Amino acid sequence: MNALRRRRKGAAAVEFALVAPFLILLVLGIIEFGRGMMVQQLLTNASREGAREAALPDATADSVKQKVVEFLSDASVSVSPSDVTVDPDPSAAFDNEQITVKVEVGYNEIGWINGSFLNGVTLSATTKMRSERLD
């Protein structure tokens, strides 16, 4: 029995060395997908905030974009106003006209790990609300 133990002395280290890369990859994948889901929810909330701003009578496309950018900036997600689409311009919308606010961001801009599984994926969120402009 003593000879058997001596022969298996390094077996656990070798087995761990073979399994560890897969475990690390699994954990990093879980973290990246979790980050993706978190940012998707933040984009949804930001588009809602922008649509609420757009529904107000004195709103403009620039004020809506600024609201969305500030909301995401507070959550440590950086987007530019060009990533936000407002259609139609709230200042030209009629009463009860639907205003659409769309936010898009590439995953490679917000991911924590370069070269991850989600590179090339675009996350987006769209919200529609009716204008409260009184004509």
Oligomer: single chain
3D shape: rod-shaped
Order of helices and strands: HHHEEHE
Q: How many domains would you count in the coordinates?
A: 1
Number of strands: 3
Instruction: Please give the order of strands in the largest beta sheet.
Output: 1-2-3
**Computed CA radius of gyration, to the nearest angstrom:** 24 Å
Measured by DSSP, the beta-strand proportion falls in 15-25%
Q: Give the number of helices.
A: 4
What does this structure look like?
Helix 2 (11-55) runs antiparallel to helix 3. The chain has 135 residues and is an alpha+beta fold. It has helices spanning 2-7, 11-55, 61-74, 107-110; strands at 84-87, 98-106, 122-130. The protein starts with a helix and ends in a 5-residue tail after the last strand. It has 4 helices and 3 strands, in the order H-H-H-E-E-H-E. The model has no long low-confidence stretch (mean pLDDT 87). It has a 3-stranded antiparallel sheet with strand order 1-2-3. It has one domain (2-130).
